[in-house]
Amino acid sequence: MRIYLAGPEVFLPDAGALAEAKRALCARHGATGIFPTDPVHCPAADAASEDWLAIYLRNEAHIRGAEALIANLTPFRGPSADAGTVYELGFMRALGRPIAGYSNAAMPFEERSRAFLGPAARRRPDGAWEDAEGLHLESFGLRDNLMIDGGIRAAGGPFVTRDVPEEVRWRDLAAFEEALHLLLEAR
Amino acid sequence: MRIYLAGPEVFLPDAGALAEAKRALCARHGATGIFPTDPVHCPAADAASEDWLAIYLRNEAHIRGAEALIANLTPFRGPSADAGTVYELGFMRALGRPIAGYSNAAMPFEERSRAFLGPAARRRPDGAWEDAEGLHLESFGLRDNLMIDGGIRAAGGPFVTRDVPEEVRWRDLAAFEEALHLLLEAR
């Protein structure tokens, strides 16, 4: 099974080492890991006049060519996962292929949103929480926005969360390996 | 053209009024706006044992039944757009149908990320910016994460940004109407 490895670790200075580590775990489980920065045949990207568009088109080609996707949904610069990773998760769900997620933060989304907002979070008369602009906080006890949890659930995939020490949260791969194992087991 | 109206305004206490206003603008341009909370025939959602899953499945049914999507990509609790909206954008792009975006914040993504990080943003020796954990800040001069800008561009859609006063950023619909106009014009 060729699995696209979505996640913000592409932004790490040693992204290549992470790619290798994930690829090795995939191989150990009998699968092939595809990292966003891997080369891929994509004439549209080769012809693109802008670097960022070429990167986009290659990522899209990788996803279209993969049989499944595992997303690193560890919260990224805010209460939710990295926007690019979430885009790719929705993309693969629409293609109808298996998707899985993992996060190295176990705190539920509502609590995480309240922690992020701090004193700006307030209660409505009905007891629900909202932010300083009056926008409601989801309170379903989920791991992230309901579209993320819902897409993974609808696809029958796992969404594994684990608390790991802050300083290794972009490198600890135990939750990734568990999601990989569960994804392959569900085939 | 039946257009799915993605955006975090579903979290507003008066989401219904926003839905009506967007629907009226769609009608004025000869299109039909579909709001996430509109009723939809979805047996899987009717059979779902959990409310959040039923909401997810109805949103997915709405998107699958729509001919295009306009996403409100105004930054939401962090430098990027709302995670649920971004998921839906990627989903519709994978279906190969027209997508458009708008944002009521004109500041480029890199500057917005630096403003969000504050003193935690620092320069690498090569001059690039990174966060306190060493993760790179995208610096392509885009409106949001490159997967968002890239998906809209690859689909040939508009991504309209406008600065509006902070207190009306969830209700001002000028950028929405411009995106709607450009989307319909490109047919």
TrEMBL record, chains A, B:
Q: Which GO terms describe its biological process?
A: deoxyribonucleoside monophosphate catabolic process
Q: Which GO terms describe its molecular function?
A: 5-hydroxymethyl-dUMP N-hydrolase activity
What InterPro entries does UniProt report for this protein, alphabetically?
2'-dNMP_N-hydrolase, Nucleoside_deoxyribTrfase
Q: What is this protein called?
A: Nucleoside 2-deoxyribosyltransferase
